[in-house]
Amino acid sequence: MTSTPSLAVALFGTEEPAVQPRILRAGPLTAELDAGNLRHIRYHGVEIIRAVSFIVRDRNWGTYNPTIADLAVEETADSFTVAYSAVARDERQSFGYKARIAASAGGTLDFSVTGTADTPFLTNRTGFVVLHPSAASGLPVTIAHADGSREEGRFPDIIDPVQPMMNLRALTHEAAPGLRVTCRMEGDVYEMEDQRNWTDASYKTYVRPLALPWPYALAEGERLEQAVRLTASGRPAAPATAGEAVTVHIGAAAGVVPPLGLGLDPDEIAATREEAATLRRIGARHLVGFHDPRRGHDRETLRELAAAAEAIGAEPWLEAVVADVDGFAGEIAALGRDVQALGSPFPVVLVSPAPDLKCTLPGSPWPPAPPPRDFFTAARNAFPGARLGGGMFSYFTEMNRKRPPSDLLDLVSFTTTATLHAGDDHSITEGLESLPAMALSAQAIAGGKPWAVGPSAIGMRMNPYGEAPLANSGNIRQAMNFNDPRQRGLLGAAWTLGFFARFAAGGACAITLGGTTGAFGVLHRRHSWPQPWFDDHGGLFPVFHVLKGLGGLGGAVMRRVELSDPSAVQGIAVERADGIELWLANLTGAAQTLHLEQAIAERAILDAGSFIEATKDPDLLSERAERGGGSICRLAPYAVARLRLS
After folding, report:
1. Selection from 298, 387, 381 nearest residue 349 by Cα
2. Which of these, 395, 511, 375, lies nearest to 460 by C-alpha position?
3. How many CA atoms lie less than 13 Å away from 452 in the CB half-sphere?
4. Is the Cα torsion angle 46, 49, 50, 54 positive or negative in sign?
5. C-alpha to C-alpha distance for 160 and 310, rounded to whole angstroms
6. Model confidence over 317-374: pLDDT tens digits?
7. Which of 149, 168, 539, 599 is the most buried (most CB within 10 A)?
8. With the CA atoms of 98, 104, 110 and 114 taken in that order, what torsion angle do they form, in degrees rounded to the nearest 10?
9. What is the pTM of this model?
């Protein structure tokens, strides 16, 4: 047992090594080689394609981490080539493939794969995925279809609930003024979905239309051949810059900071009551309690949820699943009577039919479910004194595809997860770029009613696309994790601040983060999964301090925070009697230098150097600030700062 956590544990909550991508160069064309795939393909410094990946998924949409062998990379000043073999397997099945990547300084890049099923292989998707960056939002695109026809279109601005482009062979767009990019995809029929639905900052073009059956079987020995070919021409009118200091400008007033809430699963009620004194210090305005009769929850569960909220000083909100499809009205009425018998402790009640907790992909038939208008009319009758909420207890995607009757509701709500499609650190923080579009889309769906963000975290609390989130007993970075290790690290704290800041600026009426204890919690309790260092020492997670700070901002006049690089740094600012209170988070694994326009009167920093102190002192950022000076703030990787500007 060591008294000092490793840097990896402080930053990420896990000792699993973070794989650093290799930068490949072919003159002005660069790309990051990451686990055999390419990310952040740039030409003359401009990102033209966010990623080109060959992926293999199982029947639950889980993505395999392939074993790569025989990796060979050759580089010259004007070209690079990559070749390797790989195997995606588990205890039931195996798929092997060979990949080749070749790029030239002239702006061409070819990525081809030949693969064979080593066993009968059941999969929801095996093939190429291409990501166009979310910066393409609203840009014109020339679409070449698989049947040879062409049309002019645009990348969606409002998040498209289904597939904005289908039957694809090639896409051509202007990534920057003067820089044109064509992406040609071969070996199958491709279609696009708007990945911002899942907080991915991209538009995803992928093989095999979702209207076809899934999962599907590859026969033993069945062969796949696919390729993605990129061609860039011209050069940007303005060269891209990198590595410069981030400038921070405090703009005009922009409403008030929405109230902060926490989520509560009934499995964590006892621990929440035991830790109530510490949790109360966060200052959460509401506690969203989950109730699902299929898990044995009953009137006693309702009573305990309300009592837990009272114990931490929060207003109890109810998030209730209705299991009966045909008898939904009777079940809702009975739930209303149970709540009334307890004294109607829930001023906000959100309800959802159980079938809506699972995904229905575009082109697939909707499962039987209560008629939405009848369902919410029954809920209004059962909870006449409460604010009634609807939307989705799962993710924004599902709400976007099955929109609630907002005219019958007092608020519309949804949740998010950061790890649906990828589990690496960069994808987690990069996804925050999608939240302004999600806020704009949520506003449109709500139709003038308030909209709220329900219990959300890096990890996945429920899996609409399969049986369950991954248990993650190995404590690794992985898509679809239930207990994600970064919840306990500085990255989780920085992500939380960025998440709240983006949705607060987007107009959310309330924002609920994570939970109290457990996989989405703010402090250590022993569980079935490993928690390196904390299992020996206990204490508060870094995210505790961010949530405590955000809880204290609720209701304050918010000021716009304008950043020269919002992908690297995020922040939220409010007016105080003694100046501006500004919270900033470094969302990257590199140190950031920030230039502010106002002098720093006071500062408190949460970083790896203060990690141990932060596990012990709940007032680290609120009461132990140092006098400032100057207008420059330096933030270590994934550090968070609370500043008072004079």
Report:
1. 387
2. 395
3. 30
4. negative
5. 40
6. 999 999 999 999 999 999 999 999 999 999 999 999 999 999 887 777 889 999 999 9
7. 168
8. -20
9. 0.92
